[in-house]
């Protein structure tokens, strides 16, 4: 057919040489431009057999056919394509030929992507270097500040140590009368105050007692006496850990019946230490944690153990001395009398110091050695560590 050859030339050139065959691109472009106008203008020939427009292409026969040939004619069952679709393919191929082959396009795109990645990498490296330099400058500044602070506190600690040594020397080598009474020109006669007793005997000076207590605690060097709870004394609503250091409050439902023992408290949730104290200086620490209700102190071994009266209640008789906390209300309790205590920060631990030679009992905060309360008392019998708890747990700790 006279009109077939130009179309065949275009299709074969584009399909077989359009990509990967650059030698055919010029011919393909020329053939496509020469024949597209004829195809779309309706000037193509009619099918000789059916007298219908040749608007289909048979890939099997490699020729133009009409729709009747494709459906009921000799090309039925062959691979046929509408001519409009085929021409679109030709145009796409022309675009590809105009802008380069697929390999060329991929190469250009790859070069653009690599260029962008390279630029991004360089920017990130520059930013990283800037941040590293900034961090290094900050580290040097902080290090210098720390060195300055360290030198300052080292000097301050040395000054405090010298002051402490002088105070201890003064307290241990100066008579009480010289410590308490001094002449003051233009000030008037010295008088007693609530903070400092200026009597020549100095038997009840809070200031001197606090200085003495601080010196004793520092002299202990963090050493504590080794105590455990006596499991025979543990009262109801309490459980004792296997190591005998921790008391835990339990409710009535989980309470386990206790065997009778004359040493056991049968009503109050008390427990006593296993070692009696009647000489020397002893201190121990009780970790009260988050407990909101506890008592820590000492008592005579003769303290009552049975009944719910005050005779067996710590702090409510003449045989026990305890620091008590109930829901943030701290107080010193003895013989049914309470002395309210001003506690600025809730202590996590309570320290107890008993100095038998001076008959002094002192309660303190171990982390800061702050004195919470102290008392001088004539003890007539050996003392036992005593505790009570009605909220969570308390534990005797040892360094």
TrEMBL record:
Keywords: Coiled coil, Metal-binding, Zinc, Zinc-finger. SMART domains: PRY (SM00589), SPRY (SM00449). Residues 42-83 form the B box-type domain. PROSITE patterns: B302_SPRY, ZF_BBOX. One of its GO terms (molecular function) is zinc ion binding. Residues 110-148 form a coiled coil. Pfam families: PRY (PF13765), SPRY (PF00622), zf-B_box (PF00643). InterPro entries: B30.2/SPRY, B30.2/SPRY_sf, Butyrophylin_SPRY, ConA-like_dom_sf, PRY, SPRY_dom, TRIM/RBCC, Znf_B-box. Residues 206-399 form the B30.2/SPRY domain. This is B30.2/SPRY domain-containing protein. It comes from Periophthalmus magnuspinnatus. The lineage of its organism: Eukaryota, Metazoa, Chordata, Craniata, Vertebrata.
